[in-house]
Amino acid sequence: MKSLIAGLVPKKFRKDKTIVPVVRLAGTIMASNSPGRRNLNLATVAPALEKAFAMKDAPCVAISLNSPGGSPVQSRLIYQRIRALSQEKRKTVLIFVEDVAASGGYMIALAGDEILVDPTSIVGSIGVVSGGFGFTGLIDKIGVERRVYTSGENKVMLDPFQPEKQKDVEFLKGLQNEIHQVFIEMVKERRGAKLSDDPELFSGLFWSGLGGVERGLVDGVGDMRTVLKSRYGDKVELKLVTGPSTMLGRKLPGVSGISGEEIAAGLATGLAETAEDRALWARYGL
Questions:
Q1: Res 281: pLDDT
Q2: pTM of this prediction?
């Protein structure tokens, strides 16, 4: 009789399976979102994270992560939101790395109670990088005069149209060192005694998934479906959780109510961000 009654209950209300919410975080980490592409930042990922952690009966939240890094601020904000929700909802966080979790991507991975990888994943790159171009030679060649008027002697620091100054470079490196130290402390806090004594650990180098396991940067090798089935049984159901749609019922950000000049500026910014995006992935052979 009990089995008969159970059979009459709609499938989604039956208790004979374990549902694990899955959030996929994929892309470069940038504060802005270019037309046609959503980058990873707190604004874009928060709705999906909130929905996933709100699933009361879920024993954990699984996060599929694939990011070559980007903004350290947005990386840390996402990390903090995951940890806050984990503690508030008392749920374990399992991070599954796809192609890469490097630099800011690895900072997000630190939010996991466990980090699992594919043997061929790329992990690490614990460091800080800034880049740019110098156009002083080009300006001289084409006969362009640079005119800048400021109040404050450092307002044109690291201006690409002026010769590089050693004191500006030293100032920038000082900032990078401060951010790098924050990153290092996060790694030590989250990975603790699991870390190896490899002297290159915080040098900015990166390793395969197997190399990450060897150095204690990650916990082991395993794919999401296999790992979750081994822990919660064959009836475990993975439920992909996404944020609100931007195509149905919502206006695309940055399109409605702006001028042609603003659209053009946005497209130009988008091209620059696309180039930066491509460079970040290419660094890891992707």
A1: 73
A2: 0.77
